[in-house]
Amino acid sequence: MKRPSLFGLAACAAIALSACGQEPAGEPVVRTEIGSGVAESDTKPAPAVDPSPSPTPTVASACRSATFEGATFTHCLADPAKHRIVTALGPAGGAPYRSFAKLAAARNADAPAVAFAMNGGMYDGEGKPIGYYVENGDRLEELNRAEGPGNFHMKPNGVFYGTGGTWRIRTADDFYANVSQRPQFGTQSGPMLVIGGKLHPKIAEDGPSKAIRNGVGIDSAGRAHFVISQGPISFGVLARYFRDELKTPNALFLDGNVSALWDPARGRMDSGARFGPMLVIEEKETR
């Protein structure tokens, strides 16, 4: 698929921060801008929830509800002592899954239990990642340091990656300069929300543009905090939640308006919007 200016979306202005995964023709995509608060089109106020999954009673939910500055979030905690993180895009040699339902149907019966999963990074019109992407140690897409429009190119963007129980978030330039060994998993998205304990310099305090958004941050103990808003919020509120409430020195925006969560323990599987890369947090086997 041809991707003019990487996405082929003229609506993504140079300072736009929003979900920049291009959807097929006929499916509108929301684009918003920091500072201006312009919202072009709103597809749906919140992800639909697939009613088919049943709660998993043997696995306690890793997610909880939280409030911050009047906004409500679902906060899911991945602990290296209890969980492993893998990326998932699609079957080997096949098209991307584009949904949790298809991912769930493709998982082997003897696969580890899923603690939760979230959509995990920017993608093109086919659902393929547009930045660095590693799955099971195989690099499917190289690091993207190009200039361009949209939130992915709001520098600095960043990479969430890890091997075993060691998980990190670095800016793309930091990753390029300091990471030489390929991790087991990795996904590039943008922009960074928190960088070294400071908010991204171009994120407004609380711009009028609102959307359902999700992100991930790593705390000083090495735990990964995955957050998805339960209603439309600004980038500023999301970034401050990571910095001030979760105390994560580094946090990365994953996406907006297509943001989705799968929490099997509570029978939640968001559906409606199609996305690309997924981050799957699996339960470690206990003996």
Automatic annotation (TrEMBL):
Keywords: Glycosidase, Hydrolase, Signal. InterPro entries: NAGPA (IPR018711). Residues 115-260 form the Phosphodiester glycosidase domain. One of its GO terms (molecular function) is hydrolase activity, acting on glycosyl bonds. The keyword Zinc-finger does not apply. Residues 1-21 form the signal peptide. This is Phosphodiester glycosidase family protein. It comes from Pelagerythrobacter marensis.
